[in-house]
Structures are given as structure tokens and as C-alpha cells.
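ugh finaly. both done.
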Amino acid sequence: MLNRALPQHTIRYLNQVLGGELLHVGPSEKTVQLPYFLQDAYEVWSGELLGQPVVLACAKGWQSIGPKQLAQHAKRLRELLYAPVIIALPEIAPGERKRLIANGVAFVVPDRQLFAPQMGMILSERFGTEPRREQVLVSPATQALLVWFLNHHPVTQTWHPFEEASALGYTAMTATRAVRELVQFNLFELDVRGRSKYLKLVGTPRQLWEKAKPHLRSPVMRTLWTYDIRILDVMGVRWSGESALARMTMVNEPQQQVIAMTTDAAQRAKEAGVCFEPLKLADGIAIQVWRYEPGMQAQGINVDPLSLWLSMRDSRDDRIQIALDEIEEKFPW
């Protein structure tokens, strides 16, 4: 049975706990392109959350879908719609909740619980009290603005991030949230001038970078593969991964080329006839779909060095780690 109020209840709840009108979604036109079993199971809404593309899949009949199926459905929706997926459920039993968390499925139960670690959000269920947000990571939009600042701003300049936000495709509301997050994590001091809010750097850019690291995530949302070399001609593509590392350091060029692009660019490539595969292809091109614009340096052919560092810092390859240290040392702090 379709719970017609579930999308509206979910939107209200997420905006309430996030502290503003930060979720902007509506019924997705791409629903008709989904397999029938997904159309029957979910009302799919798409848009942006915290300045990042998101799909809200509202269950039509939760009792008939088990945690294992939900995990499979979330994975399939993510692959088809090229965006993170949050499953909205009208209710959930404790055992089912544990199994969804164990499988890494992002889900929300309005007024009860939110689990979306990929977006840096976990709300624990608390009975008799208001839920409290436990945020350990800045939002992708905030991270993008911070990386932009480190790449472009002189040390002495007080920062008004709204122009940069517009250039990166973010709204004034998203910029306002970024200001709040950067102050919340003690990365900047707030400087209010009339009705305008500025950010004042405390310390040096290198100190800011070190302080921010624990709150930053890999910009890579997912990786796709293709044999179609036309992907290299898509507007906004940048060399990434080991391909970019080889152009910045002494690391050898990898056997498999690695590029980065936004979700929108990947969608444009798909509409132009480029076929993507979700699994690694031998000798194929690896396409990293990023959470934010990879072209922070307009004149370059690579992703910016700081985002590259974030995308590769978990590598266990010693030669990669040595190269990443070199990137930090060479960066013009």
C-alpha cells in the first residue's frame, strides 16, 4: 500500500534536523526508466541535499521488503540514477535497523532515525527527547568551498565565500550553511559586517589544512568504467587518481587511465551514447564520479592537488603515500 505522505514527512524531517531548507527534491522524471520492480516498490524523488545530488526512494510497501532486498535495491538505484540513495521508510524494527546499518544502507524513518554515513549524517533514535545530529564530516559543498579557498586565497584576505559558491554552482543558502559548518568545526572565525558574514582565517593555510583533515572525505562518490575514449572529450573532465599523481610527482603512469567528473557530466556523457559499466574493465578507463567540481584550477588538466590527496589518502601503497607527502610539501601554502 502506498504511503502518499511519506515523501513530504521525510522532507520536513530532514530539513528540521539539518536546520534549514537544505533538501530540495521532487518526483523524478527518470522513474519511468527504472525496472518495473523498482517502480512498484518506491516513489522516487531526486534533487539535492547539502548541495550534493541525492535520490530519495520512498518505500510504497515496507512490510514486503526485507533488509537484504533493500540493500540490493539501493545499490541498483544508485547505479541507475548516478547519485547517493536514501531509502525512506514509514517504520522499522530494531533488528531490521541493525541489518541495514551493517549493510551500509542509507535510510531515514521520519521523526525517528537517519543513517547516511556517506553524507556525514547519523541521527540516533532517542525516545522522549529530540534527536541530536552527530556530524563528524563537513558537507561536500562546504568541503568544495574550503578546498577552493586553500587553492586560491592569500593568507591575509578575509573571506566572503558567497561569490565562490555561486561560481561552483551552489546557492546562497548552501553558502550560508558552509559558513556555519566552517565556524562550527573551528576552522574559521566569524566576522559579521552589517548583514554580511565573512570568515577570518586563524593561523596559516597549512594549519587550517591539518585541522580540517579529520572532517574531510574522499571526493570520489563512486567509480565507473568504459572502453569509450569519447569520455575524455566531455567538458569538465580532469585527470585523477594515479593518472593525476603521475603528472604531479615521480609516480609512473598507471596502466589504466583515471579521470574525474561530476554527476552532471557523467549524465551528459551517457546521453551522448557513452556506455558505463559498474565493474572494473581490463584496459578500460576508470571514471571517478565526484561529489563536487573536480576542476578547482580552471587552467589545469588535473584535479586540484588537495582533493587528489583526499581521494588517495587511504591507499596502502607505500609509493602512493610518498607521492602524497610530496604533493603536500610542494603545495603553495
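ok and the 2nd:
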Amino acid sequence: MSDSNPRFGKLRPELENSQAADALRKEAELSSQGWLNEVKRNKELGLEAAPSIEDRTISTFARGELPHFAGINTFLKMPYVEDVHKAGQYDVAVFGIPLDTGTTYRPGTRFGPQGIRKISALYGTYYFEMGVDLREQMTMCDLGDVFVIPANIEKAFDQISRAVSHVFASGAFPIMLGGDHSIGYPCVRGIAPHVNGNIGIIHVDRHVDTQEKDMDERMHTTPWFHATNIDNAPPKNLVQFGIGGWQVPRPGVKISRERGTTIMTITDIMEMGLDKALDIAIEVASEGTEAVYLSFDIDSVDAGFVPGTGWPEPGGLLPREALHIVNRVARETNLCAMELVEVSPPYDVAETTALLATRVIVDTLAALVDAGKLPRSTPTWLKPEPATEPWAL
């Protein structure tokens, strides 16, 4: 940084090339037009503030990001788009899948989308370390929730696949808020018909979730058995990252062994180093594929940090490791969609689980923006919307 540049103060010489210095430089180049547009909209919709208010960007009724404690909580206080036909007008479309019918122990993940949205109000759109402002550099909306059928998991799956298919075909980048991990299968099923080639799956979790059935149904322990039965989602491109502990049923391990999926335990990651493990995961998921799907189960993080989940397991990832994982996956793969699952607010403490879930999502988006992958033109691997819904036949 030059002392002659009036936008910058003087930095200590040893900090000239630090991340903080780079972040300061990037912030100076960011636009504020998105914020100005939001202020204008808020005042138009929410009335001019009372004459005693000196800050004339404030409206009478709370609209937009501020104040964080007020308003109707969409994800990150982004616009709620009731007409889902308009999803394609946005770079990113967030929507909830409040299904916990596939839960085998702790119910409550049906409230995951609500919990994530609520705590997401704590965040702004600017990420200091990366010098990214989501409001200024991309567009995002919240489409609300899929109408799941809690008494019939297969009908719920059909609703989920139809919703994901619609959003994915629109060209918006879909982010699905779970819900239990059973949604992984219908989400991939909704995407697969639109991809002109194979899909790789990076599954960050403590559990393999590759059984064929659990208690005679397709549950949250079974999504990757069924997802990798889809023709263009082969098991050789499924990477399961962070697996371990005492809750990995042997029927799922048998399937993983027979199908040749790639399993990496926490011990593997520790011994080889996180970045080397990620090199392998990204290579396996990307080899011969056109797109990569990210499934992030919040219980992949050590249970001490995320008590509010359906199946907590000690010994998992640290939060900063989780954020590093999604950063690299976003930058180094053709990421086509993302799900965040297994947040269970009834078991959460001080909303720490939902808070980390939100952070995983916004860090992924920031990395996509910083890497020049959002906003995006129509991907070359995106097929036209199919005339039929193959899962419903």
C-alpha cells in the first residue's frame, strides 16, 4: 500500500502482504450500488423515517438487512420470491426442504430451514477476508420451502426432485436447506436429467449413508446408495469425506466397498493433511464428470461445536477446517449445486449449529464469487429442461 494513496492508511511493513492488507485493497474497489438500491427500495416500500431520524437511509418499517433483529427472516435477508417462475432471474436461489421423515433417531431437522434463516440475519453480505460483497457482486433470492409430504417419504421425494429440477433448469445456482440427509437422493435425482454428462458428489459427513434401506425404507442413512444408481452419477465419483466413529453401519460400508466409492476418514485427513486429502477428493469427484454436487452434513463437524443435529458424533472436523473444505471445493470444481443438511434447532444451543451452517453456505458463495464462478453464464453442461420427470414414471 502506498502512503500517497488517500484511500489507505499506513500499514506496518511486515503486514504489507498480509491477508488483511489484501482485504483492505479489495474493499476499496467494491461498488456500493447494491446497497444504495436496497436503501431506495426500503424507503419506497417502508416509508421515510420520522423527521427526528438523522440517518435518512433508515425507513419507518424494517425492510432489507437492517436491523438484524427485526423483519421477516429470509436467508441473509434476501428478497423472498413467491413466484418460483422467476428463479432464473437470480444468480442464486435458496430454498428449504423441511423434511425429517427420514430421521432414525432425533427428529427436528424439519425446522432446519427456519433455524438457518433466523440466524442468517446476523450476517451482512460483506466478507472481509475475501474482499467479497455478495449484495454488490451477485443476486440471490429465497424461494421459501418445498411442500413436502411428511407422512409419505416417497411422495416427499417426488416433490423435492420436481422443485430442484425446476430451480436447476432455470440457471440459478440452487442451495437447499435441509432437512435430514435423505434429501440428498431426490436432490441429485432432480439435477441429473439436466447435466450433459456425469455428476461427481462430494459428501462431507461422519456417516457413509450408503445403505439400500433402513428399517425397510429409504431414510437419511441411504441417499448415496440410490443417488449412485442414477446413470450419470456413478459411484466411482462419490467421495465421502470425514467418515468415522461408532455410527457407520456395516451394511453401508459393504455397499461402499462393493461399489468402489472413495471414503476418507478423519484420521486419513489428519495424517495426510487437509489439503492433500482435498486434492484427492476434488480429483476423484471431478474425473470424467461435467459437474460436482456438494452435500454438506453439519454433523461432519465435531459434536462439541454443533450440538443441534440429528446424529451427533464426537471427533469430527473443526469449524475452520469445514470452511476451508467448502472454499476449495467451490474454487476448484464445476460446482453445480449445494445442500446443507441435518440442522436440528430443537437440540441446538445458542444457535451455534445453525450459525455454522449459515457460514458454510455464505463462505461457499463468497469463494464462487471470488473465483469468478458467480455470476455465471449458462453452463455448457446444462441440458434443456426434459419434457418428462423420469423419477415419476
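summary for the 2nd one i guess: The radius of gyration is 21 Å.
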